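Reagents: none. Just compute today. GMC family oxidoreductase N-terminal domain-containing protein.
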Amino acid sequence: MAPTPQPEPARFDYVIVGAGTAGCLLANRLSRDPAKRVLLLEAGRKDDYHWIHIPVGYLYCIGNPRTDWLYRTEADPGLNGRTLRYPRGKVLGGSSSINGMIYMRGQQRDYDRWAELAGDDRWRWDHCLPYFKQHENHWRLDPEHRAQAGEAFAALHGHGGEWRVEKQRLRWEVLDAFAQAAQQAGVPATDDFNRGTNEGVGYFEVNQRAGWRWNTAKAFLRPACMQRPNFTMWTGSQVAKLLTERDGTGALRVTGCEVVTPSGRQTVHAAGEVILAAGAIGSPQILQLSGIGPAAWLHEHGVPVAHELPGVGGNLQDHLQIRAVYSVEGVKTLNTLAGRWWGRALIGLEYAWRRSGPMSMAPSQLGAFTRSSPEHAWPNIEYHVQPLSLEAFGEPLHPFNAFTASVCNLNPTSRGFVRIRSPRLEDAPRIMANYLSTAEDRQVAADSLRVTRRIVEQPALQKYRPQEVKPGVQYQSDEELATLAGDIATTIFHPVGTCKMGRDDDDSAVVDARLRVRGVRGLRVVDASVMPTITSGNTNSPTLMIAERAAEWIVQDGR
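Predicted 3D structure written out:
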């Protein structure tokens, strides 16, 4: 029998791996030049699942193989041996299709620190701010609100870009009371978490448009990219490995990739660059499967070493949220509202009629940034406060009225890793977060629970007679509270750092300040994995800024 003929390699100028937060923006920017052929690869399906677009639909997208990679962490000593569900978007739009929709840049000091670690002042806050504004479309700068927003606000925010930022479409009496209690405990009120300092308490602003989720596929692919003849997108297509060769000088170059598509394996060639935008889990996995990474890890699984880079997959950082639950009386919460059939019917009718109410909710509505103890020079903890409670994500709401005050350490010192567990792309990598593995992180965990108690003790909340359900008032010492944090804490879905950027003298750096993989030509990483340190807040919008910057450099280098 004659061998089956192999299809001719597909040829493009740029191949973008991952149609998530960064990949969708990159596809938009790089395909603006009609002379450049751009291929966008996405392992997941199109974002045509209705629960992606209804804000509360994250409940049905996380843990759903249609939209989620279904990762789990390794058993973690810091969590007293527990493993955690580790959601990552496997769908067009990536994690922007299943995340909490919160628009948050972080703090100025985050980017100034990146500049120091990367040895490049272009990462300082003042230089990054224009790239946040470039794609932003903030509701307060709409014509009807522009005069009230003022010039100071306009100097910090953008309008007319693709990335819509809106205020939430509901309020809760119990959350208003928490905000008042936080102010009574010394946390100032704020109406803008994105000025470079996010200290304060207020309602989060969200990436929605008129009550619908606004993901990056809507923002950057439709309609612009879809109408460009030089743009191609393949869904259901997963990269098995990068293709490499040595040039006449012996330098390693990535020339394309091998892709598993619904119709079989396909070779793709890139005349310009391959850009990994597969996220903090996917990008290091692809590098390792391609023989780029720590030699010992690769040898252990029989992967030939193409280029040793010790930092690939290391430096994993994440925000671990400690969920304190308080029962309340005399005030409405989602627990009992959604616990009755007529309540659920009213919720559905309100959303159908006005695109508001609980179905328009982000997972967390109220936020606060403050210090876990006075010696911290800046806010080092973040609250996500919710008018509901449950034992664990995906389980039923409690049958009593309650709120949850989830608090996370913004700048954890614990570091984990992502490692392939086999040379097969079908096998999910090992994810070891090493939460609470340092004395500093355990101290912040204990102190932050005390801050929560101090807020709840204030007069504004006392009229609802709050009672601590979790972790429980019987736990008081540092060691008790840190251990209890390990029992009740969960990820807030912000993994970063596994392909970190750094100076040439940093052996653990994977990419340089322009996000080019060290020692490999034609390859760049552009996603949250390049962050050397985690931002002091939610990570989706910083990832877009990174992609905006990288797109400019890729275009410059391609001329």
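The chain has two domains: 8-165+213-317+418-433+495-559, 169-203+320-335+361-409+439-493.
Action item: order primers for follow-up constructs.
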